[in-house]
Structures are given as C-alpha cells and as structure tokens.
Amino acid sequence: MSTPWLRTERTELAAERILDAAERVFAERGVAATEMSHIATAAGCSRATLYRYFDGKHEVRVAFMHRQTRRLAHRIAEQVGAIADPAFRLAEAIRGALREVRDTPALAAWFTHPDSGVTGELAGSSPVIQSLCAAFFGDPTDRDNQDRANWLLRIIISLLSNPGRDEAEERRMIERFAVPALLGDRHGAVHGDR
Fold first, then answer.
1. Residues 6+ apart with CB under 8 A from 167
2. Which residue ranges does the record assign to the HTH tetR-type domain (predicted)?
C-alpha cells in the first residue's frame, strides 16, 4: 500500500525526468520548434503520460524556466555572495548570469531568434522569476526591489538576445549604464575587482 507522500515523491521525480528530457530537446531543436511529442520521445514515455504531468507546451516551458532560474540564481548567489561592494556584486552577478546561460546549450536556445520572444514573455510574466530577481536586491516584496528586478530581467534578456560586440563592451555597458540604473544614487559606479 502506497502512502500519499510516496505518490507525491514519484510525481515530482517523473516531472523532473520530463524536464530533463525537455532540456535535451530544447538544446537540440530550439524552444519554439519543440513539440510535446519530441519531449515524450526523449523522456521515453507516451504523450498521454506527458500530459498527465503537464497540460501543454506552455506549462513545460514555464516549469523548465522556473527550475533553471532557481538553479542559476543559487549558483550566482554562491559566486557573488562574498563581494562586499553592492555595485561590483551586481555587475558580477549580471556577467555571471550571461556567462552561465551562454555556456549552457539548453538555456542559450531560449535566446535565439525564434525563441527569444517566448523567453521574454515567460520571464516577464513569471512571479517566480520576478521574486528571485527581487530577492537579489533585498526584500522581494518591496516595490522598489520588484521594479529593479523587472529592469534587471529586461537588461539580461536584452544582452542575451542582442549581445555586445565583445566581452569588454558588455562589461562597459553593464558597469556604466545597467548598475547605476539598478542601484540608483545609493552606490555609485563600479570600481574594479573587489
């Protein structure tokens, strides 16, 4: 006789396996070209089984994006957590996020031409992603932090969809324009490695 917690654990494990399969397919086919049948095949299950866990493509995309954003936010927090200067910490967090996404094929696929519109729409409408970004600035329920999170997301999505000519140009844009706009007069400009 199974217990309810075991069923919940199995459901979560199955959903994770499906998202792992979606990750492989997104990297191979791109986000916009990925159909539920592609994910089912990659997961080794029927489409009917897939639909027991996710109502459709949109739900798979949202679940995948939330999972990956949580993981990314955790890694970035570990990378920049010891940086004392808020401006430098933010600049490094933005650069770290750009680097991580670009170095991960399944994430980079979200920012190619046919897929970047889907990405902007999902990221902009996701309370989970907004809250994770707002928490970087402090209290995620604070309206100023929510506004900063919204702007931070737009900056990151823009740089991923339309990168600078090179890393040096992106660094300058982030340090001269993004960081001061996000932090306001509170912390000034970025000044070297700290």
1. none
2. 12-72
* Residues 62, 171 contacting (CB under 8 angstroms): no
pLDDT in tens, 163-186: 999 999 999 999 999 999 999 865
For the chain, which residues score pLDDT lower than 50?
Answer: 1-2, 5-6, 194
Fold of 1-55: Arc Repressor Mutant, subunit A (1.10.10)
Q: Which residues, in sequence order, are CB contacts of 60 under 8 Å at separation 6+?
A: 18, 19, 22, 36, 39, 54
For the entire predicted model, the pTM comes to: 0.85
Provide the CATH topology of domain 64-186: Tetracycline Repressor; domain 2 (1.10.357)
Structure tokens at 111: 């920012």
